Amino acid sequence: MSLSTPNLTPIPELYVSYDSAQKLKAEAAELASWDMTPRQICDLELLMNGGFNPLKGFLGREDYESVVENMRLADGTLWPMPITLDVSEAFAEQIEEGQDIALRDQEGVILAMLSVTDIYRPDKAREAERVFGADDLAHPAVNYLHNSAGPVYVGGAITGIQPPVHYDFRARRDTPNELRAYFRKLGWRRIVAFQTRNPLHRAHQELTFRAAKEAQANLLIHPVVGLTKPGDVDHFTRVRCYEAVLDKYPGSTTTMSLLNLAMRMAGPREAVWHGIIRRNHGCTHMIVGRDHAGPGKNSAGEDFYGPYDAQELFREHEAEIGLEMVDFKHMVYVQERAQYEPADEIEDNGDVTILNISGTELRRRLREGLEIPEWFSFPEVVTELRRTSPPRSNQGFTVFFTGLSGSGKSTIANAIMVKLMEMGGRPVTLLDGDVVRKHLSSELGFSKEHRDINIKRIGYVASEITKNGGIAICAPIAPYTATRRAVREMVEAYGAFLEVHVATSVEECERRDRKGLYKMAREGKIKEFTGISDPYEAPVNAELVVDTEGYEVDNCAQQVLLKLESMGLISG
Predict the structure, then answer these.
(1) How do the residues of the chain divide into helix, strand and coil, expressed in percent and rounded to 5?
(2) Rounded distance, CA 83 to CA 74, Å?
């Protein structure tokens, strides 16, 4: 059996036996430990359970450079994605090559040991350019690389002690070997994987049916529940949607399993990577979509990757990946025939009515509480989506003012707070710079690092308020672009974010200076003062820019309210 069906034989894992694991846990108490980020934990889990086979650990320098440049490990094996353990400067200084370190989750529970072979500094601009196609911060993974990942990489083999614990959807989570055993038991030989990070609608169902039929294969719906793209529907909602749709598939030919993968949204390289991962999970075929795993638009407003780049790269390496590609057909609904058909196979398209709802249009309909037709999605899925994204006028949101000291942020923020409280309906919280400094950040100074911590705390509180249906109004200086973006991503996971740049000039702020701060900064009595001795990075795409010179506070507040109304967040 093993020769004809290599996809069903067990693959190597990096775990040690239970007894060895107990012994290692005791020994690990003496070792330096690294508390892993959520993304690193996703990578570690797939290293340990064989999802990233043939990797034996986090990449050392030679493998890393080879993967970045040629999509291959140093020994020539196809591998498109750098799987690296990034750490802080301080941690890197405590360790040396040749020692073992303990890898722990965020509660401090040990998951694995790493035998350090390499400690190196990557060229991150080069990594961005080669792996993601451009060193452009509009790409979420490039932004992560430059603004979240540590400056030093540590490479070495992993000894797996125990998998990370997942408390959600346990029965739906399978290791590669568990899936292979399941396929063996059911006698499945050909299995087509469907990779998804979005809820499934009728078009997806139709296309997966067709793909399975075309490949004469069983179907594995294999959604990613690790880290996807900022702004995606959360995985709890998505899995409930998938479970609602599973009933529409024949139970004997379809199964669903969750993949704890941290996506990089790397388009073509990501497609090849997904293929290798699916091969490790026992699949023989995979559906590769148009713009597979694309992150959307770059800084110039164009797509990062061409619509078929991923399919072309996959096809080029198909034999080495060890998996056949089934191309994704663009399915549209033909009203007269009341069915979905591949867009490029409709011969009478001039005579029939073709209906299609884009992702953007779907989000608009959810946001505005409009009807979502049954031909487009299943009522059960729409019900789930409406639970998590009610119409905007019932959702929490954050208004984030940024501008120089003395620009008028607090004054306008106070006016907005009062006007929103007058309207009623949702609790309103003002997170003003000075108030936050007193209650949340009293121990922080004004260095760049401390300012970033302060703004991220504000962002965290605002995201919690937004998640719970309230309105957060923030009015810090927030001088740095990357930190404002981090706050936006925190909030947009739960509701809308309105950035308001209070664009008052330094000269005007200095003229108003009622606290005498600018005067003291000019005299050198205040170090690191934004606008004088410290930079202010003005937002380039704030939703609203208000100029307070020559305008009343009331007029500025009115502009903010009109903007909120046009975004559907408050009713006129």
Answers:
(1) 40, 20, 40
(2) 14
Q: Give pTM, 2 decimals.
A: 0.78
d(Cα 274, Cα 317) in Å, to the nearest integer?
12
397, 367 contact by CB (below 8 A) = no
Strand order of the sheet with strand 471-475?
428-432, 471-475, 397-402, 496-502, 544-546
Q: What is the spatial distance between Cα 572 and Cα 565, in angstroms, rounded to a whole number? A: 6
pLDDT digits (tens, 9 = 90+) for 533-566: 788 999 998 999 998 887 888 888 999 999 999 9
Nearest CA among 227, 241, 213, 235 for reference residue 270: 227
Picking from 379, 375, 406, the residue whose alpha carbon sits closest to that of residue 502 is 406
Catalytic residue among 77, 198, 411, 414: 198
In whole angstroms, what is the distance from residue 48 CA to residue 374 CA? 43
211 neighbors 287 (Cβ within 8 angstroms): yes
d(CA 263, CA 229): 8
Q: Which helix (H) or strand (E) holds 462?
A: helix 448-467
- Interior angle at CA 328, CA 327 and CA 333, nearest 5: 145
Q: Is the pLDDT of residue 199 over 70?
A: yes
One-letter identity of residue 522: R
Instruction: Report the first-to-last Cα separation within the chain, whole angstroms.
Output: 69
Q: Has 177 been annotated as catalytic?
A: no
Residue with tokens 């605002």: 462
pLDDT (tens digit per residue) in 410-442? 899 999 999 999 988 899 999 987 788 888 888
CA distances to 148, 174, 411, 482, 484 from 441, in Å: 21, 43, 21, 20, 17
pLDDT classification of 391: cutoffs 50, 70, 90: confident
Which tokens hold the place of 11? 């693959």
- The pair of structure tokens assigned to 245 is 């749709």
In the structure encoding, which two tokens stand for residue 143, read together? 């932004």
Tokens matching residue 548: 């307070």
Tokens 């739960």 map to which residue? 494
Catalytic-residue membership of 197: yes
Burial letters 471-489, b for 16+ CB under 10 A, else e: bbbbbbbbbbeebbbbbbb
Q: Which residue out of 159, 196, 255, 260 is catalytically annotated? A: 196
Three-state DSSP class for 115?
strand
Q: How many helices (H) and strands (E) does the chain have?
A: 21, 19
Please name the residues in contact with 423: beta carbons below 8 A apart, sequence gap of 6 or more.
570
Nearest to 495 by CA among 385, 432, 569: 569
Question: Of all helices (H) and strands (E), which one includes residue 459?
Answer: helix 448-467
Question: DSSP code of 260?
Answer: -
Catalytic residue (one of 39, 180, 197, 269): 197
Task: State the amino acid at position 547 in one-letter form.
Answer: D
Instruction: Note if 180 is an active site residue.
Output: no
